[in-house]
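User: Could you walk me through two proteins back to back? I'd like the raw sequence and the structure tokens for each, with a short line separating them so I can tell where one ends and the next begins.

Assistant: Of course. Protein one, sequence then structure:
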Amino acid sequence: IGGGNMGGAIAHALHAAPNFSVAVVESDEEKRKHFSILGIPAHATLAQAPRANIAILAIKPQQFSAYSAELAQTKAPLLVSIMAGITLAQLQAVCEQPVRVMPNLPAAIGESMSVLCAPNLPAAARVAVSDVFANIGSVAWVEDEDALHAVTAISGSGPAYLFAFMDALQHAAIAQGLPPALAQQLVMQTVKGSALLASQSTEDVAVLCTQVASKGGTTEAALAALRAGNLNGLVMAAADAARARSKALAGSKT
């Protein structure tokens, strides 16, 4: 339900996965055409969609109240919400077994980090929901709903932080005289290779950092500049701001 960036990424990934039948509910006609071209049934309203075993709510938190009555009538056995700030208690008004999940945009290529929360969910339902999100990347569960604010700040919003850093690095490369195409290639492959190395290494990323930075070398000089600019403090401030906004959304009326 909702065919925006995240809802669309999830729908595309599940459509390509075996053993899933996917339909999308999306009010925007152009987006519905996009899904239909890809072979994914798309409906303008929830009433037009087939009854699902699992309904994934991928709309903006501000839209939740507009869907509440209709969702309650569908009686989906499991309702999984990606909405930041809409609590399990609020979701229980429309479904007996709600689940909250915070995925991230790499779901578009099957590399999402999805963190789920539903403390009282039966084991079989937990397995079913895990199977869905395992098709778009890695899955983890938290038992404390409040932890989702921090999850939102780190992995939910995290791709944007990394894209912003990549953009800054590309601009630095161009400023130092490299052609834009080469600057982009250098940044993309460096980030990709570094992420893969970190994910496969038994070393902490802080240790990997020291392995690149030899004493008195170029990397050490660059790291000193980043530290002088309070890189850790900026990242902490960004995460704190995202977490605070998540909490504010949870406390606002929808």
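----
Protein two, same layout:
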Amino acid sequence: MTTRATVEELLRRMASGDAETTAELFAEEVDFLCAGSDKVPWIRPRRTREDMADFFGTMNANFVPEDRAALISGFLVDGEDAVVMGHVSQRLKSNGRAFTIPFALHLTVSDGRITRYHVYEDSLTVAEAVTA
């Protein structure tokens, strides 16, 4: 698959909420970056495909599925690199707190597998929602 096709498939799988299927798109070793608070259960160092399954699974388990939405406002591809920009809305199961934040994903696709997954988002809003 091309970089664009791989990233489009990633977005489709992320929207489905199936962490294992989503993680299948990743390489064995992943350059992962997601800055935030240690109070946010899904944000911690990740390095492998299995770690990515845990990342998506833990994140999905914390949100109300029917209250999840994402709006993609930009999608740039340059060779193996892609940047996806937009806004995501979520509601936490633990406290009912909802938030909408901007995000950007910087992804790299090598040989049809995602090797870089860097998330840039309003992590302060996420942390405040989790700890409210």
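Helices lie at 3-16, 19-23, 49-61, 123-131.

Let me know if you want the two compared in more detail.
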